[in-house]
Amino acid sequence: MTPPAPAARSSLALRCVPLFEGLDAARLDGIAQQCQWQQLPARRRLFSRAAAGGDVYFVLAGRVRVTTYSANGRQVTFRDCGPGEPIGLLAALDGGARSADVVTLESTLVASLAPGDFRALMAAEPGVAQRVVEGLCTLVRELSERVIDLSTLGVQNRLHAELLRLARAAGGADAGGRARIEPAPAHAELASRISTNREQVTRELGALTRQGLLAKDGRAFVVTDLACLERMVAEVRGE
Q1: Looking at the chain, which runs of residues are DSSP E strands?
Q2: I need a labelling partner for 68 at 20 to 30 A (CA). Which of 39, 104, 139, 150 fits?
Q3: What is the pLDDT of residue 238?
Q4: What is the largest CA-CA distance in the chain?
Q5: Which long-range contacts link 137-142 to residues 24+ away (Cβ below 8 Å)?
Q6: What is the pLDDT of residue 1?
């Protein structure tokens, strides 16, 4: 395998990382020099589930997918991460093995910090430590919600909930109450997110289209009435 191309170290690039908010230029320069920098092509594995190693990766450009595979090869997708997001916090903090696979979705620039350096940064910068804790709390809440959805909702309702999550992540509704999800995820990708198969996703997307709640516009899905979708999801969740 060809090694990834090295990337130039730049404290300016680290300014997109929310964890580093409030750190001065000199501190960011020091972190930049501690990091290993890599420019990775699309579909390159960053690390694998159960692998050793505890470096924390910061996505500075591009996107990666946090995913895993069952023994029979079925893919389960947890989330996609874009610029500014840290990857690999758990292994850095507890010294355990990696809990998922991470693969680049497009050409991606990452900077990685050794676990000892990252823990030292947290100890020296209480603001960084606080944001790490807050980020992990948010992640636990999101994953708890997904576990409840997977355990209690049917395929149709799980798809509605995932479309709602994607619409909110894309910025929510515009002035007309419509939400645009771009690029539209592939049917197989949606299936991996809600633990079903591509055929069921295709069937349910067709039903939403016939109802007039979903439309395709070029490379995007358009939720034509986000408030209606929110009510549908809230009702089945008992909210």
Answers
A1: 5-6, 36-40, 45-47, 56-61, 64-69, 75-81, 86-87, 101-104, 108-113, 179-181, 214-217, 220-223
A2: 39
A3: 84
A4: 57
A5: 142/79
A6: 47
